[in-house]
Each structure stands twice: as structure tokens, then as C-alpha cells.
UniProtKB/TrEMBL annotation:
Residues 437-636 form the Integrase catalytic domain. One of its GO terms (biological process) is DNA integration. One of its GO terms (molecular function) is nucleic acid binding. InterPro entries: Integrase_cat-core, RNaseH-like_sf, RNaseH_sf. Signal peptide: none annotated. This is Integrase catalytic domain-containing protein. Residues 794-805 have a biased composition (Acidic residues).
Length: 819
């Protein structure tokens, strides 16, 4: 079978982009699954086209996740940070999985409609999994979604699980095994434990920790231990070692049911089946605890009216049983009912309950046509945002009712029906995703994804301009642009980890500055970054950076600030406690005309930048870590506890040249670099001796601008990286990071102001030359006029010089013949 498969002209699977199993591994899987030539071609096409769909673009509640897969050595873009990410973690830990693809296109899925008609459609399923014994096509769904769609489009229960008949039939026709992965709620404990286990795969244990782990395995072979008991029995054992053992399948635990940060309740087992049974029992108890009340006693749900009359009736029953009253036939029947209820172990009062609260008109006051008109205007006009106000909607209801010749319901009735409708439908239609997120109700705590377990594992990033109420001087100091700041918050301990401040347009440099500041402060990188979908957060540079550093990137829905609540809350606190209290420095401006405007604006901006940066530094890294929350725990307290249990859950990173290059954003350089002129950019000419030598034979392949130092470029040329500098490099190299960053941010404004001043100078010179030329032309014209006028006057007033000669001629004697 493998030989036959090798002769096929199969679709090309781009290994560099997709990673995963190579062609040989896939062909071996086809051989074990006994796939036909047609089936192999179909599956190869699915793998080749996987991951091309842009996921989560219009998602309302899902967080798009760029999951860095160790098994596939590539990124897997999934549209759910809960359901699909949980399944991805399970695949990473499964030794029977060779590799997998996500967002797999499935073309030509047939369904039969209710009217018996054949319907063919295309679908994109979540996972195509290559296992050692089979090839699976997997769709991931939550338990709540499946229960809501049971019986629709072929979804139904099958044994202990679920299936979808159209997908199953399509998969079987291609030699695939269709499976539905069901994420049972609540899922936060399982997701966060798997997440921490996955991080330990890149954090190897030390020699001492390995010795402790071996002794722990020997102890678990005798009996189960909780993490706390194991730590007391075996000094040196902690949660970090437990996570590593769980990830390597050297022991098993209550992953689904018990929070890992409760070491006294999280038990470890050496036997997988025993751990599975214990986990299932604990998970069942957990679901019972958080389940909504069901099969309640009637007394519990009785209204106040019914309970009031039940007490009166029970008093009558007691008097009848005591022989004080004879009682009517109806009351004697009630006595019998009370005795029967008591014999069944029910409260006697429950048999005396009335149903007065259910009395009255329970049907709608509207006739069917009025209800139809009401439903239509709400569904077609209100929920689609075609009507602006409720009053206008009532006018439309009037028109609709008049058209159907029925009485128009009152505005109060219309408002009653609107209150019963889902407000998010209109919010989405009228205001888009941001309005939807604002109108969306708060989520159920049992359905949330929870918090990261370890310190340094997950970083929440968000950015904001300093609040406009911080004073107009701040905005004026930065040439009309309010400064931006980025903040990074650790999810587990809610502590600020890094910050960045700059001014100008929002750009990718802000994230690069933050990641450089993070490593400068802590010496490691997080495993997961959570941020919003701003344009600067969706750059190719950030995606490449996270792939190279093994960071999973999770992006919240558009306008979904609650998904990134920790960073959003920190930004609000910073604006309230820093920005509003700093009106900006105006000391240079107070000198008025005594200081040139050029120096005044730069000095003001530099001083204001320093003041804001220092205030943000003090508040974020001194005040916030020491401020306790409602549980009287500060972020520093949480960090100490997390460090004692798990250590640092981040990947070690050195602030070396390689990292400086990685945190420098690439720029578009389309010109030609030469040995003589170097690399010419808007900010100047960059060159260095190594670059000049390489430019004799090569052209730059990639050019990156350092995010902190505007006089430094990193140039990839001839397969190596070299630095290139501006003339000001020696001066800037002696400055602090903050000073270099200010000069880098101020440089565009300086160039713009320089161009404007040069233009003003050119304008003055141009007009001056124009005026001089006009004066010269006027003077020349005046000289001509003056000369002409002088000549005419001379011709008129001067005597004729020939008159004397004429008189002499007349006085001359005539000539004789002798003469």
C-alpha cells in the first residue's frame, strides 16, 4: 500500500508553513489505515489546505489563538482558547499522536433536509489527527452546545459520546475515523493544569529535582499522595516537579476535577485507571455542587400567597385531627391528603399548599395577528437596527397593525416585549461588535477559563493613551500627540511585569519595547501572551517573534475588553492615579520669548516625558505590587506563594544581541545600498565597516530599526547580521535607555519641524529675492525713463551750432575768376 501511495501525484503539503508529520510519516499512516489511492489524495488535499481560513474574524465570544505546537514544530491557529486549546494540549501529551492539522476543509458533505431534499455543503472541521493506528477527523464542541443542538443537522448522542451523521459518513468514505471531542463543563481546572504541564516540557528539571522526582515515583507506587503530603514526606518536592511528572505520564492526577493550586486536595497516582476513576468521582461531585437546584420541594418554590393560605389550612387540619372541628367534606379530604403525604415522608404543610398564585389570566392579551405584528417589528426592525428609538418602533407597529386591521397594542405592551428580547441582537446590528460586547451580560463563573497557575506563565498586554484629563500641557508638549503607554500584567498574581511609554502614532514598536523591558527586568519570557486585536498587535513581526520564542498568542474579540480585564483594569488605575495628577511641566514655557520656540518645545517634551515615565515607573512597580485586593493579598504576596510552589513558569531569556534583533521591528528598505553611501533612510545614512565590506558583494536581505535607539540598525546581509550606525551613535550610546527612547520618538517631529523651518526660510528668501528683483527691474525701468526724458529735454532747449557758420558764409566775399 505504501509503494502504491508513493507513485501518486499527491497535492503538495507545504512543510515549512504547516510543520507536522512529514510525507513519509503520512504515507506510513495511510498504509496502516489501508487507505485507497482516492482516499490518500483526499486526505493530502485536506492537509495541504488546512489553516488557510482566517479564523475568529467575526467571532463574538471566541479568542483567536496562535498555539505554538511542540509536536508539529509550527503554529496552529485555532478559534477557541478553551475547547480547541484543551484538545490541542491533550494531543501534545499523547504519545500515540504523530502530528495534527487544524481548520481542515471538508468539501461535499451531504445532508438530507426535512423535506427529503439532498443538500451538499462545505465545512471546516477542527482537527485532522495522524495517530499511529488510525487517522481521525475531530470536531470540538462544548457540552452546552451539543445539548442545545441535539437532533439538529444530524447531531445526536452515541453511547457515552456524541456524533454527527453527515460528518461521520463523509469521514468513513475517506478512511477516516470521525470523533467529537466534548469539553465538559466546568473546564477551567483541566485547561489550566494542562497549560502548566505543557510549559514544563520546555523547563527541564535540575539534577536535584530529578532525584526528588525519582523518589516521588517510588513513593507513589505504594499509595496515592496529595501534593502537600508528598512535600511533607519528601523534602524538596513541589508543584513544579508534580507538573513535570504529569506531563511525562510518570504519574497521574485529578486533572479534570481539582484545581492544581489546592495542593492539599490534588492527589497523584501511579496507576492511570485509578486516577481516572478518582478524577471522575471528584468531577461528578463538583458538578453536583455547582448544578442548579432541581426537584425541589413544593414548599421551597411556593409563593408567599400560597404559603400564607397553606398555614391557615394546616391549622384547620390540626383542629380537625384534634376533634375540635368536624370539618367539611373538602377539608376532610385535605386531612387524608396530609396523612398520605406524611406517610411518604413529605412535610405535612406541602399537602396544604394552594395554587392561588397561578390564578388569573395567564394567556397573552394580544390576539394572534397582534402577536405576529409585534414579533415582526421587533425581529425585522428593532433587532436589525433599522429603527432608532422605541417611540419610532411603536409608530411602525401602528402602521403594521393598521395594515392588518387590528388594534395597536400600547407602548407599555411594546416595552414589555422588548424587555423579554435579547438586547445583544440589536446592539450587534446597530453598534457592531463593540456595542455587542458592551451589552453582553457578565459570564457565568463556572464557565470561565480561570487563571494561570504559575508566576510568569501568562502575560496580559494592553495599551492606551494617557487620559485627556491629564492636562493640555502634556498634549502640547508632544506636538499635539498624547503619549502612549503599554502595560504587561501577570495573570496569576496580577502584578505589573513590564511597561513601555512613547509618543507618536500607535505602532508595533510599543509591543517590542514592552517585550524588551520584560526581559531586562526578569530574565525570562512568558509562555502565553493575551492582547486585543489592535492593528499593532496583529503584525507579522509579533507573529514571527512569538513563533521563534515559542509563545502562544491569544487575541480577544473586537471590543471585548473583559477578555483582557486585568490589563484593562491596570490601565484604568494608571490613568486615574498617574495621568490625572500630572498636568505636565510648563517651566520652560514660563520663560516666554526669552527661549527660542524650538528649544522650548523640545525641552518641555523631554522633561514631560521624563516626569511621566518616572511617575508610571513608581506607580506600576512600587505602588501596585504592594496594594492588597479584597482578600488582603497583594501581588507581591501572591508572587511569593507562587514562587515557593512552582518557581518561575517562564522560559529563560538573555538580553543579548540575538534578542535585541528579535525585538527590533523590520522596516521596508527598497533603495540600493552601496559601500560608499551605506544605507540611506529618512533619518540619515547608516553604515559601519563590516557592512561596507559586505556591500561589495551583497545587498541587504532584511533591515531592522532598533526600537529604543534611532541611530542603530540591524542589517541581515550575506546570511549574517551586522550593525549599522548614524553619526550620533557615540553620543546616544552614552545616554540612558530613557533618553535614547525620547530622542528616537522625537526624531520624526524634529525632522518635520526642520523641514517646516527650512521651508519658512526658503519662503522668506524667495520673497526677498522677488522683492530685490522687482526693485532692480523698477530701478532699471526708471533709469530708462529718466534717460529718455533727459534726451528729449536737451533736444528742445539746446541752440543750433550751425547758426554761426551760416552767418560766416553769408559774410564771405564771392570768388573771382582769378581765384
Amino acid at each position: 500500500m505504501v509503494t502504491t501511495a508513493l507513485k501518486l501525484d499527491l497535492p503538495f503539503v507545504e512543510q515549512e508553513r504547516l510543520g507536522g508529520p512529514d510525507k513519509t510519516q503520512r504515507l506510513e499512516s495511510y498504509g496502516r489505515a489501508e487507505c485507497s489511492r482516492f482516499q490518500i489524495a483526499q486526505i493530502e488535499a485536506m492537509a495541504a489546505d488546512s489553516g488557510l481560513r482566517l479564523v475568529g474574524k467575526g467571532a463574538l465570544n471566541n479568542m483567536r489563538t496562535r498555539f505554538v505546537s511542540i509536536k508539529n514544530k509550527a503554529v496552529r491557529v485555532i478559534e477557541s482558547h478553551t475547547c480547541e486549546r484543551t484538545f490541542a494540549y491533550l494531543l501534545e501529551f499523547d504519545p500515540g499522536v504523530v502530528g495534527y492539522y487544524v481548520q481542515v476543509p471538508c468539501r461535499g458533505i451531504e445532508r438530507t433536509n426535512e423535506n427529503g431534499a439532498r443538500h451538499v455543503s462545505h465545512a471546516t472541521l477542527d482537527f485532522l489527527v495522524f495517530r499511529l493506528d488510525c487517522i481521525e477527523l475531530v470536531e470540538c464542541k462544548t457540552e452546552a452546545w451539543l445539548e442545545a443542538h441535539e437532533g439538529k443537522d444530524g447531531w445526536h448522542r452515541e453511547g457515552d459520546g456524541w456524533t454527527c451523521d453527515p460528518y461521520k459518513q463523509w469521514a468513513e468514505a475517506r478512511g477516516l475515523v470521525f470523533r467529537v471531542f466534548v469539553l465538559t463543563e466546568p473546564f477551567a481546572n483541566q485547561l489550566r493544569t494542562l497549560e502548566a504541564m505543557y510549559a514544563t516540557m520546555d523547563l527541564p528539571l535540575t539534577r536535584e529535582e530529578l532525584r526528588v522526582a525519582e523518589r516521588a515515583i517510588a513513593l507513589l507506587a505504594k499509595k496515592p499522595y496529595s501534593i502537600e503530603d508528598m512535600g511533607e514526606t519528601l523534602p524538596g518536592f513541589n508543584g513544579r516537579i508534580a507538573l513535570s511528572l504529569l506531563a511525562q505520564h510518570k504519574c497521574y492526577g485529578l486533572v479534570q476535577s481539582t484545581p492544581f493550586d489546592l495542593p492539599q486536595h490534588f492527589y497523584l497516582y501511579s496507576d492511570q485507571e485509578q486516577a481516572r476513576l478518582a478524577d471522575a468521582q471528584a468531577f461528578s461531585a463538583l458538578r453536583t455542587t455547582i448544578a442548579q437546584p432541581a426537584d425541589l420541594d413544593p414548599l421551597t418554590t411556593a409563593s408567599a400567597t400560597d404559603l400564607k393560605f397553606a398555614l391557615k389550612r394546616y391549622e384547620i387540619v390540626q383542629r380537625i385531627e384534634a376533634g375540635l372541628e368536624k370539618g367539611s367534606v373538602r377539608m376532610r379530604k385535605l386531612v387524608a391528603n396530609v396523612r398520605e403525604a406524611v406517610s411518604q415522608g413529605k412535610p405535612a404543610l406541602s399537602a396544604c399548599l394552594t395554587q392561588y398564585a397561578k390564578s388569573g389570566n395567564r394567556e397573552s392579551r394580544l390576539d394572534p395577528m397582534q402577536q405576529e405584528c409585534m414579533t415582526w417589528v421587533i425581529r425585522a426592525l428593532w433587532n436589525r437596527g433599522k429603527v432608532r428609538t422605541r417611540k419610532n418602533l411603536w409608530f411602525e407597529l401602528e402602521k403594521e397593525c393598521q395594515r392588518h386591521h387590528v388594534v395597536t397594542p400600547s407602548r407599555e405592551t411594546l416595552n414589555y416585549y422588548l424587555r423579554q428580547d435579547d438586547a445583544t441582537k440589536r446592539a450587534l446590528a446597530a453598534g457592531g461588535m463593540r456595542a455587542y460586547q458592551a451589552a453582553r451580560p457578565i459570564s457565568d463563573p463556572t464557565l470561565r477559563s480561570g487563571k494561570a497557575i504559575g508566576y510568569g506563565h501568562t502575560l496580559h498586554i494592553d495599551s492606551s493613551q494617557f487620559d485627556g484629563r491629564c492636562g493640555k500641557q502634556v498634549e502640547e508638549a508632544f506636538s499635539g500627540n498624547k503619549p502612549w503607554f503599554y502595560i504587561g500584567i501577570d495573570e496569576a498574581i496580577e502584578k505589573p511585569m513590564a511597561k513601555a511609554i512613547y509618543f507618536g502614532k500607535a505602532c508595533t514598536n510599543g509591543v517590542a519595547l514592552l517585550m524588551r523591558d520584560f526581559v531586562r527586568r526578569h530574565g525570562f519570557l512568558p509562555f502565553v501572551i493575551v492582547l486585543d486585536r489592535g492593528s499593532e498587535n496583529d503584525s507579522k513581526w509579533l507573529q514571527a517573534f512569538c513563533l521563534e520564542k515559542g509563545i502562544t498568542l491569544i487575541q480577544s474579540p473586537t471590543g471585548g475588553s473583559r477578555f483582557n480585564g486585568q490589563a484593562e483594569s491596570a490601565i484604568k488605575r494608571i490613568n486615574e492615579n498617574v495621568a490625572h495628577d500630572l498636568p505636565g511641566s510648563t517651566k520652560p514655557d514660563q520663560k516666554g520669548r526669552k527661549v527660542d520656540g524650538k528649544y522650548k518645545s523640545e525641552k518641555t517634551a523631554r522633561l514631560t516625558f521624563h516626569v511621566l515615565n518616572q511617575a508610571l515607573e513608581d506607580y506600576a512597580f512600587k505602588d501596585m505590587p504592594e496594594t492588597p485586593t479584597d482578600d488582603d493579598y497583594s501581588p507581591d504576596d501572591r508572587m511569593d506563594e507562587a514562587m515557593s510552589r512552582y518557581g518561575v513558569m517562564g522560559r529563560p531569556q538573555v538580553l543579548d544581541d540575538d534578542y535585541l534583533i528579535k525585538t527590533s521591528v523590520d522596516i521596508k528598505f527598497t533603495g540600493k545600498a552601496t559601500e560608499k553611501r551605506g544605507i540611506k533612510l529618512a533619518s540619515g545614512i547608516f553604515t559601519s565597516k563590516p557592512l561596507s565590506i559586505l556591500l561589495r558583494r551583497f545587498q541587504p536581505e532584511e533591515v531592522r530599526q532598533d526600537c529604543e535607539n534611532g541611530s542603530l540598525l540591524f542589517v541581515k546581509i550575506g546570511g549574517t547580521w551586522v550593525k549599522a550606525f548614524l553619526n550620533a551613535i557615540l553620543t546616544l550610546a552614552s545616554q540612558s535607555v530613557e533618553e535614547r527612547l525620547f530622542d528616537h520618538c522625537w526624531a520624526p517631529y524634529a525632522r518635520r519641524n526642520g523641514r517646516k523651518r527650512a521651508q519658512d526660510s526658503d519662503r522668506k528668501r524667495y520673497h526677498r529675492h522677488q522683492e530685490a528683483e522687482a526693485r532692480a527691474e523698477a530701478a532699471a525701468a526708471q533709469a530708462v525713463v529718466d534717460a529718455k526724458q533727459g534726451s528729449e529735454q536737451q533736444d528742445t532747449e539746446a541752440p543750433d551750432e550751425d547758426f554761426d557758420a551760416l552767418d560766416a558764409w553769408n559774410n564771405c566775399e564771392p570768388l573771382t575768376e582769378e581765384d
